[in-house]
Amino acid sequence: MSSGSQVQHLVVVSVIGVGLVGSELVDQLSHLPSPGLRDQFQVLSLSSSRSTVYYNIGSHQWQNWRNDLAASDVKSDAQALATKLTQISTVEEVAGLREGVSFSVIPVLVDNTSSEDVARLYPYFLSKGVNVVTPNKKAFSSELALYDEIVAASLKTGARFYNESTVGAGLPIISTIKDLVATGDKVSKIEGVFSGTLSYIFNEFSDGKSGNGPSFSSIVSIARQKGYTEPNPADDLNGADVARKLTILSRCIPSLRDKLPHGYKSVSTKSLVPAALHGESSGDEFIRKLSEYDQEFDKLRSDAFKENKVLRFVGVIDVASGTIKADLESYPNTHPFVTSLGGSDNIVMFHTERYGARPLIVQGAGAGAAVTAMGVLGDLLRFL
Ligand SMILES: NC(=O)c1ccc[n+]([C@@H]2O[C@H](COP(=O)([O-])OP(=O)(O)OC[C@H]3O[C@@H](n4cnc5c(N)ncnc54)[C@H](OP(=O)(O)O)[C@@H]3O)[C@@H](O)[C@H]2O)c1
Ligand SMILES: *[C@@H]1O[C@H](CO)[C@@H](O)[C@H](O)[C@H]1NC(C)=O
Ligand SMILES: CC(=O)N[C@H]1CO[C@H](CO)[C@@H](O)[C@@H]1O
Prior knowledge:
Number of helices: 17
Structural class: alpha/beta
Organism: Thelephora terrestris
Helix content: 25-40%
Keywords: Amino-acid biosynthesis, Methionine biosynthesis, NADP, Oxidoreductase, Signal, Threonine biosynthesis
Enzyme class: oxidoreductase
Bound molecules: NADP nicotinamide-adenine-dinucleotide phosphate, 2-acetamido-2-deoxy-beta-D-glucopyranose
Low-confidence stretches: none
Oligomer: single chain
Number of strands: 12
Strand order of the largest sheet: 3-2-1-4-5-6
Family: Belongs to the homoserine dehydrogenase family.
């Protein structure tokens, strides 16, 4: 770096998994409102599970990435990607990119897959000095040993990892808990509706206006038709997604950091999948058989209604007692989980010492490509 020249950060991004959100991310990245900021990002590569397309540093040529990726015969190879990302950190590659400007390269891997295999590579990437940003919950909500490896690799090289969009998509949930903890507030309890799918299902099923209404299985079926559920709704009703999110949040609270040795499997989780339906792999069959249990759900709804309450599937982290659970609970009609919740919203209440009797609440759409990509892009901006 010659003295007197200007030094700028250049965030070099490789995206693995270019589906809805991955595509949306590249689009948002290309249309950042500030031109100065736009110049500080470079897409190095885009990968599907089959192939990868690489771009030259300094080219802003990735607008036709769909065609480029389809035409590319470069096989996806995570090791090769890590090598390439770290090699660029040597200044020569970016020398001469812009007259009078030296670049300090910040390599970032964006994992937009739901792949466990990719998640298990984070320690490798971090140990090579590659930062990681991801909406993929797998790595942070699995066994503690993997989380420890990720943290250790990050400490060793100084490479950072961000995970804001793993919980509540673009909603500021992780950053809120981290700020509360880092500034010395005492978090006593976090409680929320963390699954957009289960939010929709119970907002429809138990609206507090009457003690009866459409059957549980019919609402699950409609949710599936609208594309709100996994192909097999059992994958939503089993509560595992909520347990994963609770794991990620708990690990942000120092006293709970080591509480869940097996990650989401250590969370006490109420499954709404009837025991006899475990292992039913066909989504259609699952819905058909679920209707045999409608009366049980009807009873839960009418019992709650008699007490002026509604049913919500929530996640609760009670810090003092160390209780972490995903459960079906009833809430009074006047509670924010009833009065201000609609559609497939997420809502999270942070009970802390400073917020006293009026908890901090974050609420809004907790899924969707545009808001999830925003969460990922927001994490990328943290590197500048
Ligand atoms: N959508 C949302 O609102 C939202 C919100 C928060 C978090 N998330 C998270 O976003 C992630 C994606 O969700 P999804 O259910 O749509 O996942 P998915 O169906 O597995 O899709 C992920 C994409 O990644 C690619 N992929 C998978 N394995 C790969 C590998 N080993 N190497 C390279 N590419 C690979 C697939 O591309 P191919 O076509 O090449 O197979 C696919 O396009 C999940 O982790 C989810 O939890 C989503
Ligand atoms: C999520 O990322 C933050 C850094 O932004 C990190 O401190 C935290 O430990 C991560 N959470 C998990 C569960 O990995
Ligand atoms: C969070 C995220 O980026 N998820 C997207 C990754 O890509 C798949 C498609 O392959 C989308 O469906 C996800 O929404």
